[in-house]
């Protein structure tokens, strides 16, 4: 079976009738780079930079960060690497960084909120990312934004970082800026964000937990955490429509995109850029190669009218048969 799937490594991800989608990789550690290459990922759609920070005993300095990012970027010479700034707090803490004890960490001081409260650390990270951008095709992305002020503040830090590097003699290329749409409130704000950024990335891992009030790491509510819940599909459809209206690229990088049945549904909902776990890439291409876009769109439309995730799941398995 694996050999059969191997043939998909160098093939495009296309439907029967030629609708092409882009399959990039989600990565965290340097070791993920060769895995992404092995599975023929078309670049990196989500580089979770917190992982190198978590694997250390203290904050890595700018040079150390630059060297790590540079190695990732050089791993994809003809493709883009979307680097996400530090996303700590919630379920991810740094042993050497003082994070307050909070009653609701996922609703608390996490992600870009932490970065904006530690400007020097944030600017240092952005400088390291911009330095790595001189070695390839980098996009820069901010997680968990909910307000326009945050987007503007992030852009200000990018401008400062650029200025610092220019003062040091660096020539920094223009790096596209994007924000993650991973809090329900960000969906309605996307029209405003679109005036300030170049692209969006749907982070369904967080979006689902916030939409359905079900902690993504709490097994006692895992049956409430349902990626095919009609409210989740409606939120995704709304984001797709907004991105299209605003003329912005939209990538989806939550785990659900790596699940073949959900992936098919997402293509039907209009998504064309995906960032997935590398080992899932062959199976996603194999499935897509058997389906046509009209069927996918019809199934997605029917799914949108269903009343539960279970019913959506049933609909998908009836429409696409046994998916891997
Ligand atoms: C997400 O929230 O969907 C996401 C891609 O980011 P993370 O899983 O790192 O929170
Ligand atoms: Mg997230």
UniProtKB/TrEMBL annotation:
Signal peptide: none annotated. It is found in: Cytoplasm. Belongs to the PEP-utilizing enzyme family. This is phosphoenolpyruvate--protein phosphotransferase. It comes from Rubripirellula reticaptiva. The lineage of its organism: Bacteria, Pseudomonadati, Planctomycetota, Planctomycetia, Pirellulales. The gene is ptsI_2. The chain holds residues 463 to 786 of 789 of the full protein.
